UniProtKB/TrEMBL annotation:
Compositionally biased spans, kind Pro residues: 517-529
UniProt entry keywords in alphabetical sequence: TPR repeat
Organism: Streptomyces typhae
Alphabetized PROSITE patterns for the sequence: TPR (PS50005)
PANTHER family per UniProt: CELL DIVISION CYCLE 16,23,27, CELL DIVISION CYCLE PROTEIN 27 HOMOLOG
Composition bias type Basic residues, residue spans: 530-539
Mapped TPR repeat ranges: 281-314, 453-486
Stretches for region Disordered: 1-60, 497-539
The protein's name: Tetratricopeptide repeat protein
């Protein structure tokens, strides 16, 4: 019978940091204070909002549960596989060696160092050459490949992961929750959320109390734009698990819903509870992301730097550092940071961001080189089953062929109706000349998605094209209030549009009352209409 998984590292008993702990995490020096371990229910933290969907409520529940976006979900899945290898026994964590460190880290559902993860993969491969029928080891290997692929943007690891996980299923076709959960994580990594939903829901049916399966499904439902599914999955994970991993996931969901203060508290909790450098880097990166989205570039930079200090292999933080440095006007440093991120994790999103920064700097040949790299990376990733249609569509809409962007993004939105896909499609429709249809999609993104400066910018520009000048002025101004650094190309365009729109016309009393000294002419008296004729009887 399936039982609730108990964290091997004692995270279920970890205290929820109080407000002072969070403030230390979010301060300029990004120091995480130690705090006393207490029994469950005795911490002074604020908790989560009320269950989704519904109006936000007080942030007071005793524990926030979830799993970390991307990398940390892969770790949680891998940790689940490792913990069940003993078929119900409690394994002793290995004391020595990089593979042992990786086993210990991911056994607790936390990220492993990239070098240690590589050692674990090598150890499992060697083991399987001697014991090819070991279904659990195939599941471990496949899940480890998924995590490494996420960390390095090497889609070849996804092909290896699929082969390993399907081999595990072939060796044990019935009740193989580990392989099913690994396949769900693989679908998420490839942005194939329909496949992820299929595998994840099978895993949940077989093991309804396995938190890693619900964590993978939470990622899936976010990718599909299924807010009710996100609510169910988050609630389930919160009941089954606690610790840094779950607090990060809770924070990202809160951020998606626009609950930024609660998101900040949850993410600060996660950073305070992180037990390894790699886990701490993930948490600090997410805090930096929230700061960036709020327009706090200097604070975001501090957290990206802290993430890199904890784990130099956390490449998303290096790209985030480039973004923040560019916003602060430190363009030479920004270019170096982006180039470093692309050298280590050549993700198409980074190439698009760097290309637009070059374009802002009037370095058009360098920008074109990045756009060419983007197309190449999308093609290469596609060979590994990765769906990067949204980033390619965004590129085509602004720098290539808007008609092709509409085709790509229409198909992508039908597959995965997330707010991000709705916004990208709406903008592509506008760029291709159909602003009316584009506005409907962008309005959907604004209504259902996070409070995004990009969404409001797109909405304002489309409204300006439709001559809805009051709405355009309001939404362009809102984009700059949310994040005055949201894009090196979008910010100057928004400011130029607002300048062209000018100040709103004077209204109010000047248009209601006559100027002083002028008396309006009296209205003519109505002519008598005569005696009304009686109506004919209905009878």
């Amino acid at each position: 019978m399936e039982t609730e998984e108990t964290p091997q590292d004692g995270s279920a008993a970890a205290p929820t940091p109080g407000p002072s702990d969070r403030r230390a995490v979010l301060s300029s020096d990004v120091r995480i204070p130690r705090h006393r371990r207490t029994s469950r229910g005795q911490s002074g933290s604020r908790g989560s909002r009320r269950a989704f969907p519904g109006a936000p409520g007080p942030f007071r529940s005793p524990a926030l549960r979830g799993a970390v976006v991307g990398t940390l979900v892969g770790c949680a899945v891998l940790g689940s596989v490792l913990m069940v290898q003993g078929r119900g026994e409690d394994p002793e964590p290995p004391a020595l060696g990089p593979a042992g460190r990786a086993m210990a880290a991911v056994g607790a559902g936390t990220p492993a160092a990239l070098a240690d993860l590589g050692a674990l993969i090598g150890e499992r491969e060697a083991h399987l050459r001697a014991y090819p029928g070991d279904d659990d080891s195939w599941a471990v290997l496949g899940s480890a490949y998924v995590e490494r692929g996420l960390r390095t943007a090497d889609s070849g690891d996804y092909l290896k992961a699929e082969q390993a996980l399907r081999t595990s299923l072939k060796a044990r076709p019935e009740g193989n929750v580990q392989a099913l959960t690994g396949l769900a994580a693989l679908g998420n990594a490839r942005h194939d959320f329909r496949a992820a939903k299929k595998w994840g829901e099978q895993a949940v049916r077989l093991a309804p109390r396995r938190w890693t399966a619900h964590a993978a499904l939470l990622d899936t439902y976010r990718g599909l734009g299924d807010t009710k599914g996100v609510a169910r999955a988050l609630e389930k994970v919160r009941k089954l698990r606690s610790g840094a991993a779950v607090r990060v996931r809770t924070g990202t969901v809160f951020r998606d819903r626009g609950w930024r203060e609660d998101a900040a508290a949850a993410l600060a909790d996660a950073a305070a509870l992180a037990k390894t450098p790699a886990e701490r880097a993930v948490c600090l990166y997410e805090v930096g992301q929230l700061s960036w989205e709020r327009g706090e570039a200097a604070d975001a930079l501090r957290h990206y730097d802290a993430a890199l200090a904890a784990d130099p292999d956390h490449h998303p933080a290096l790209a985030g550092k480039g973004r923040a440095l560019a916003a602060l006007g430190r363009t030479s440093e920004a270019l170096r940071a982006y180039q470093g991120a692309l050298a280590r994790q050549p993700a198409p999103e980074y190439a698009l961001e760097l290309g637009e920064l070059y374009e802002f700097l009037k370095l058009r040949p360098a920008a074109r080189a990045q756009y060419d790299l983007l197309r190449t990376r999308v093609k290469q990733a596609g060979l590994g089953g990765v769906n990067d249609e949204r980033v390619l569509g965004r590129y085509e809409a602004d720098h290539g062929d808007p008609e092709a962007a509409v085709r790509r993004l229409t198909a992508e939105f039908k597959r995965h109706g997330s707010p991000e896909n709705a916004d990208a499609l709406g903008w592509a429709l506008h760029r291709n000349g159909d602003s009316k249809a584009g506005l409907k999609k962008v309005e959907t993104a604004v209504k259902k998605g996070p409070r995004s400066a990009v969404f409001f910018y797109h909405r304002g520009e489309i409204e300006r094209a439709l001559e809805r000048y009051g709405d355009a002025r309001r939404h362009l101004s809102e984009a700059l209030r949310i994040n005055p650094h949201f894009s090196p190309l979008g910010v100057p365009a928004a400011r130029k549009a607002l300048e062209a729109l000018g100040e709103p016309p004077e209204g109010g009393p000047s248009q209601v009352y006559a100027p002083p000294g002028e008396v309006p002419a009296p209205l003519p008296s109505p002519k008598p209409s005569g005696k009304p004729k009686p109506r004919a009887s209905a009878d």
